[in-house]
Structure formats: structure tokens, C-alpha cells
Design brief:
Blueprint: H1 9-13, H2 19-25, H3 34-39, H4 41-50, H5 61-72, H6 83-92
Helix pairs in contact: 4-5
């Protein structure tokens, strides 16, 4: 991520949470839902920093710092990408449908 780029839940934060993480926390809130994460952002951040989340081992420091920067920047839901960036991103992630 380049300095000055907007950190967004959809692009940067949600992918940090694995399916296993999402399932294990579903009893309390959904880590893949922006509104749930935003509502519990302080508690999630604290647990990430103290290493108690995820339950099978702490995140690398760079991921914790990214999450913290997302909080400090205002917890953006998503960013509007230029069409070319959007297409490139979807191709990279195998999501572009065949024409």
C-alpha cells in the first residue's frame, strides 16, 4: 500500500480475516461485515494487538498496523477505483467473468 492511499474495509481489511476467523467469531459478530467490525473496532484492535485474536495465532505486526491505520483514517467502507484498476484487481483475484 502506498503512502496516502485510502485504506478500506472492502479492499484491505476484510481479506485479512480468514474464513476460519469469521466462523469462530460469528457467535458475537461477523468479521466479514463492515457494520459489525466497525461497531466492535476497538475491541478487535485490542485483541489483535495483544495477540489473542485470531485464536490460532497472532497476526504479523504489519497486518496489525494496517488495521490500526484503517481505524485512525476513519474506518472507510470502500474506495472508488478507476475502472482500469477495478478490472485489474478483479483479474488478479480471478473474479473477472469471461466475456
Amino acid at each position: 500500500m502506498k503512502t496516502g492511499e485510502t485504506i478500506s474495509f472492502a479492499v484491505d481489511i476484510k481479506p485479512l480475516f480468514r474464513e476460519r476467523d469469521q466462523r469462530s467469531m460469528k457467535f458475537a459478530f461477523d468479521l466479514w461485515e463492515y457494520d459489525d467490525v466497525k461497531q466492535h473496532v476497538a475491541a478487535i484492535g485490542e485483541r489483535l494487538r495483544d495477540g489473542s485474536m485470531p485464536c490460532d495465532g497472532a497476526w504479523p505486526q504489519e497486518q496489525i498496523e494496517l488495521f490500526q491505520r484503517w481505524i485512525e483514517s476513519g474506518c472507510h467502507r470502500s474506495v472508488r477505483l478507476r475502472e482500469s484498476e477495478s478490472i485489474a484487481s478483479r483479474r488478479m483475484h480471478g473474479r473477472l467473468l469471461s466475456r
